Amino acid sequence: MGPHPAVAAIRLAVRRVLHEVLTQHAVHSGGAALAAASPARAASGGVATDHRAPLVLVACSGGADSMALASALAFEAPRLSVRAGGITVDHGLQDGSAERAAEVAGRLAAMELDPVEAVTVRVGRAGGPEAAARDARYAALDEAAERLGASAVLLGHTRDDQAETVLLGLARGSGIRSLSGMAAVSGAAGRYRRPFLQLDRQTARKACLVQSLPVWDDPHNADPAYTRSRLRHEGLPALEKALGKGVVEALARTAQLSRDDADALDSWAADAAADVRDDSGELECAKLFSLPPAVRRRVLRRAAIDAGSPAGSLFARHVEEVDRLITGWRGQGAINLPGRVQARRQGGRLVIRQG
Q: How far apart are CA 24 and CA 30, in angstroms?
């Protein structure tokens, strides 16, 4: 008799990602990784010890999603001769967080993941509590991955998380890139992998239940002070009540379609960016005007970032103001952008410079 369907689903999702990691690692190492993962060894289920094998880390908070992910990684990694470890991040935002992080690390070690680390971070205030905690967490994961030489870090985001992300992007009016939600692969060199984006949250929780895995429910996830929490417990249920079941699946599908469109437009804009410059490298307003608005605004955003405007502070309204120098020119003065960058129209050219 095979494993419970929920357990089978999470293991299959992780197995697919590990195959991708192995393939990528083999390309970079000249095939040594695939040679290490011999069929005989895979059949035996032995733990990989070859230092040439890729290391994959799981980021685990102790919640149901990440505990299910850790259990699937612990099961699948030895069968593919992949080294597997775990990282838990202590944000220090709740009483007893250090003890809880140590407990999670102990559970990961009990799964025979190695290395396992509990990393403490200091959360700032920039962008609000949710964004600040996220920034601190990813900085810690990046540092650990670099230091340990990890090929990938697995994250437990589910289809429900994806739906919430799409709705948050829609509420901000941030454009199609924001509606594309979270990518299955992201970060430097594709470091971050999200195996569960096609699985719902209930599947992960069921997998923990049938495997008797203890989970910790973060009280912040139910705190109405946080936007995502309100959306999860009030917004999405209200949408499902009004529109019927299937809202989460539809939003996740919207994310993928939006990502495909955004990727195509980004590629178009990258090609167009070179064509709209003169011999001195300045942007020509007439050529910019001839581009479709979605492409032109991408070119302008990239030019502003290249000039020194921080991407995280450069919003759609900033790009729209710069766009008016092309489409609604009335002799207006320079546009001030984040990072002390200015955009001004001079003699048929758009000049974007710092200072």
A: 10
- Residue 143: which CATH number? 3.40.50.620
The total of structural domains in the chain comes to 2
16-51 pLDDT, tens digit each: 999 999 999 888 876 554 554 544 344 444 444 566
- The percent helix, strand, coil of the chain (3-state, each to 5) is 55, 10, 30
63 is in an annotated binding site: yes
**Residues 68 and 171 both lie in one domain:** yes
The DSSP result for 141-204, as a single string, is HHHHHHHHT-SEEE----HHHHHHHHHHHHHHT--HHHHT---SEESGGG-EE-TTTTS-HHHH
Is 290 assigned to a binding site?
Answer: no
Asked if the structure places residue 90 within a domain, the reply is yes
Residue type, 339: G
Residues 231 and 329 reside in one and the same domain: no
Q: Establish whether 65 is an annotated binding residue.
A: yes
pLDDT value at residue 45 = 47
Spans of the chain, pLDDT less than 70: 30-51, 127, 174
The answer on 229 and 116 residing in a single domain is: yes
Contact 73, 14 (CB under 8 A): yes
- Exposure letters 68-85 (e unless 16+ CB within 10 A, then b): bbbbbbbbbbbbbbbbbb
Is 174 assigned a ligand-binding role in the annotation? no
Is 149 assigned to a binding site? no
Supply the pLDDT for residue 11. 98
- For 43, the enclosing helix (H) or strand (E) is helix 39-44
Ranges of H-type helices in 173-312: 176-179, 201-210, 227-230, 236-243, 247-275, 285-289, 293-306
Task: List the domain range (segments joined by +) for residue 290.
Answer: 276-354
Contacts of 303 (CB under 8 A, 6+ apart): 273, 283, 350, 352
- The residues facing 120 across adjacent strands are 90
Q: Are 353 and 286 in contact (CB under 8 A)?
A: no
d(CA 118, CA 87): 6
Alpha carbon 71 to chain centroid, angstroms: 21
Question: Annotated binding residue at 66?
Answer: yes
